[in-house]
Amino acid sequence: MDFKEILFNLPEVKGPLEKKLPFNIKLKWTLIILVAFFILANIPLYGLASNSLQRFEYLAIIMGTEFGSITSLGIGPIVMASIILQLLVGAKLINLDMSTHEGKKYFQGLQKVVAIFFCIFEATIYVVMKGLEAMPGLQLLLIFELTLGGIIIILMDEVVSKWGFGSGVSLFIAAGVGWHLFTAAFGFIGPQNTIQAVGKVWVFFSSIAAADTINATAALAAILATVIIFLVVVYAQSIKVEIPLSFDRLRGFAIKWPLSFFYTSNIPVILTAALLANVQLAARLVENAVGYPTFLGGFSNGNPTSGIAAFLSSPNILESIIRGSFTSMMLLQSFVYIMFMIAGSILFAVFWVKTSGMDASNVAHQMISSGLQIPGFRKDPRVLESILNRYIMPLTVMGAAAVGFLAAAADLLGALVRGTGLLLAVMIVYKLYEEIAQQHAYDMHPALKKIIA
Predict the structure, then answer these.
(1) For residues 315 and 334, is the Cβ–Cβ distance under 8 A?
(2) Are 248 and 375 in a shared domain?
(3) SS3 state of residue 50
(4) Residue numbers of the domain that contains 139
(5) Measured distance CA(313)–CA(120) in Å, rounded
(6) Percentage of the chain exceeding pLDDT 90
(7) Is residue 271 part of a domain?
């Protein structure tokens, strides 16, 4: 058995036989996986002696995890496998024809193998470098638990992708951000498990009662930043370029093919944010292992204070101005952070379009196979491709740059949860809403089935 046969015969979640799953089935499996994710996030690792990663709330949100639980690896292995394979395929170091079923299946199999490798690799690194320190003699057991949890997350992602709405990666991020957003706004359990006003809403009212204008202003700024980010992202999500199309077999019927301004949605910023999270995590683990800060970065109370990690982190500009702690170094950090987020988002967006079948060539063939054409033009894939090229790549670059800038700006404003996480959650929920609405309309109107079929 050669390597290709192994990839094609890997254990996997069996997909549905129906071309279009009913709304109720998709909703059921999405909710089941969501509940299972929260249950797993509350199962502690057996044999864990200390957890120096529990202060990295930002990393936990981006990686869809709860450090110290069975899901400590989160979506990290899946995202890292996706990043590496996209770079290799985009650079033509791996030649795959993503327009064919065999090419897509080979890519998915390869991605699963690389993701499982990263489960084992990251679990070992966490334990060996004492990010999650094991009790004496239980190192291998802890590595096994972490690896098992990572593989479970991979399979849960596959269940959502085949049987639910969206993808597991997006669902886990949205769930984590939603939970942290609620606790950041309305939390009342303090660091020492004491009852106190820690949520920004309670802090705002208690600060007003105590005539503490600085804390009240800082809390109000965080709440307003969250609302503003939400509104801006929802508005930007609605911006679309619509291409008029007609059915070649049904005269008089026409539709519009929408191309969203955020053409690649939240994928580029997920990959960029995950890359940043892994850089910070690697810096922290190296510091734990050697006992002192390195060029990767040094940390104090979970926050990067030096090295690469510090320059690739976002200072809370708004709160710093309110509290009078703003420095010129924060401007340099902010500039580097914004440029990195924009460049990373553009890079991953271009690679994603090339490897996921969203390029002009694949979209043109998809239109032709659906019996669609642009009125006034020949029904030829090459003609459609040349027209789509005017829109798809510019939208890919501009949309990715915009989403990267929004994510960076949101981080700098200091929302209730980190801006990148909030941006991702809003985009994920909006996309999920569109998919649910489309699926519901499909189920409600049998006539639509005939047109789509």
Answers:
(1) yes
(2) yes
(3) strand
(4) 1-164
(5) 27
(6) 15
(7) yes
What is the tens place of the pLDDT at every residue in 167-208? 888 888 888 888 888 888 888 776 666 777 778 888 898 889
User: Which of 196, 198, 354 has the alpha carbon at shortest distance from 268?
Assistant: 354
Q: Are residues 150 and 280 in the same domain?
A: no
Q: Which residues contact 185 (CB under 8 A, 6 or more apart)?
A: 199, 200, 201, 223, 416
Question: Nearest 5 degrees, angle CA 270-CA 276-CA 279?
Answer: 140
> Domain holding 260: CATH number?
1.10.3370.10
Long-range Cβ contacts of 389-393 (<8 Å, 24+ apart): 389/360, 391/241, 391/243, 391/259, 392/259, 392/263, 392/353, 392/358, 392/359, 392/360, 392/363, 393/350, 393/353, 393/360
| Phi–psi pair at 178, nearest 5 degrees | -60, -40
Question: HEC states along 364-379?
Answer: HHHHHHCCEECCCCCC
Supply 193's token pair: 């498990």
State pLDDT tens for residues 38-59: 899 889 999 998 887 776 666 7
CA dist., res. 225 & res. 232, Å (int): 11
What pLDDT is stored for residue 318 in this prediction? 82
Amino acid at 287: E
Give phi and psi for 379, each to the nearest 5: -80, 80
**The dihedral sign for the CA sequence 241, 243, 244, 245:** negative
Is the same domain home to 409 and 284? Answer: yes
Residues 261 and 132 in one domain: no
pTM score, whole prediction:
0.72
